[in-house]
Amino acid sequence: MTSTESTDVLIVGSGFGGAIAAYHLAAGGAKVTVLERGPWLEGEDFEHDFLLGSSYTRIFDFVVGDGMSLLGGNCVGGGSVVYFAAMPRAPRFVFDRQGGLGRRMWPEAVTRDTLDPWYDKVCEALPVTRQSWDDVTYAGGLFAAACDHAGRTANPVPVAIDGDKCTNCNWMMSGCRFDAKRSLLLNYLPAAVAHGARIRPLHEVQRLGRTDDGGYRVDYNVIHDVDYRMSVGSGSIDAKVVVLAAGAGATPVILQRSEPTLGPMPHAVGRYFSGNGERLNTAIIDEDKALRLLGLSRAEGLAYAANQIGKGPCVASWDNLDPASPEFSRFCLEQLYFPPGFGTILAQVPDATGPTWFGTEKKRIVEQWQSWLTIFAMTEDDNEGVFGPPPPTGNAVRISQQMLGRGPISYRPTENTLSGWRQSDAAVKDILERDGLSKVMPWTNDVVGAYTVHPLASCRIGDDPQTSALDDRHELRGHPGIFVTDGSAVPGAVTVNPALTIAALAERAIPGIVAALRDRGVDVSYGAPSPDGGTSGRRAVAQLVRD
């Protein structure tokens, strides 16, 4: 089936960048259509297993590139469905980062001060709350105690979680069947639908072209609901404005494939990709040492043995986020639960005499999996990623019917990035191996290269047209009416979980998109309250818009 329709705004993707745009533009009176590559699942649909065909494999997109692998969401709600709901604000120094450019990467108009009111809006909508120590899981408490033992500080992480609904099942990464995690399925997206937005799952955008009236035509394939390698239809939608929010691993691919029909792309499209400088280390905790050194105890004399109980990141150490420290030496360390599948494959065996990621020695450490503790480092990388020629369809060549693909990204870490990784690895070892508390297993890059769950910066905002694909309003240079509001717009690594920053930037971009729609004859307004009806964040932002 082939068809052509029309809408005021066509939004590609339904994660933070897409959902926020869909709500505000629909609430303002625009006709909004959202195309989402993945399926539409809600609480009762999320399954607690890793079987092929379960919700776990249906809602993830794992793309293996050359030197970098990307893990992201593939469903209505995007990354918010599979994230761990950790929502810190980026440190103030992040907005002054220079990276390898030797000059400020972020637009002069975007600072922590100018972004704070937009952070407030998102925190009100989800909402985001700061956990107390009573909310912290066994793993979080162990990491905090280990930090204290090593002379470091640790803090509960702000989260978008309803503590009254959370059961500590530790399946957050597979979608929350209890609706405790405040994903976009519970706020912006239902509010957008209530205002008339149409969300179409299993619709994968392929390319953009121009229409005779100055708008854009968006071509899509309809994806089979079981085998994502197959399409069962296609179509086109004409729109006055297009908002790309397909994620940092897909948005640049769509734009590169669209070059024959749109015209030349800015130089920075598909360049300067950042993996948010991410590293993982897994420690095997010595239960006796945890009992004696840290004074921890559980029932039956256990100190820990609770890797599987809890939720996502609960505790972080921010001691290395000193603005006075040199760039590429700043990072945060966060306790994290990662599903055993990936952890078992990628955790290297300490002091192994043979291969570090398979064999009898690996089998022995896997037997101790309940005493594992994974620490997630977010460092300052050097934006080394580059996207090569796009695949024929989609953002990757699909290898399996769900989840796994081979993508066009190439990543070669510079010494700046490698130095940051070494320093964060050393800090993890200092904390967790002190006095024999554990043995640390750094995750190997030998199998899938570097890896990230927070891809950023492949179509970033900035002031320099040579190094940024978007202006500070998130509009694609040379292509008026095309905006990018996902993680690809973030200029570089932010040293903390970036979801709140992505969402705040998307909120900040809405007035510019509204102005573009008005210029194209659409009667649309800006100023809708928070999706839950709150108004405090709206008032703060309204003042900025007036100024």
From TrEMBL:
Residues 68-271 form the Glucose-methanol-choline oxidoreductase N-terminal domain. Pfam families: DAO (PF01266), GMC_oxred_C (PF05199), GMC_oxred_N (PF00732). The keyword Lipid metabolism applies. GO terms for molecular function: cholesterol oxidase activity; flavin adenine dinucleotide binding; steroid Delta-isomerase activity. Residues 451-506 form the Glucose-methanol-choline oxidoreductase C-terminal domain. Its EC number is 1.1.3.6, 5.3.3.1. GO terms for biological process: cholesterol metabolic process. Keywords: Cholesterol metabolism, FAD, Flavoprotein, Isomerase, Lipid metabolism, Oxidoreductase, Steroid metabolism, Sterol metabolism. InterPro entries: Cholesterol_Oxidase (IPR052542), FAD-dep_OxRdtase (IPR006076), FAD/NAD-bd_sf (IPR036188), GMC_OxRdtase_N (IPR000172), GMC_OxRtase_C (IPR007867). Its cofactor is FAD. Transmembrane segments: none annotated. Residues 8-41 form the FAD dependent oxidoreductase domain. Pathway: Steroid metabolism; cholesterol degradation. It comes from the Bacteria. Signal peptide: none annotated. Belongs to the GMC oxidoreductase family. This is Cholesterol oxidase. It comes from Saccharothrix espanaensis (strain ATCC 51144 / DSM 44229 / JCM 9112 / NBRC 15066 / NRRL 15764).
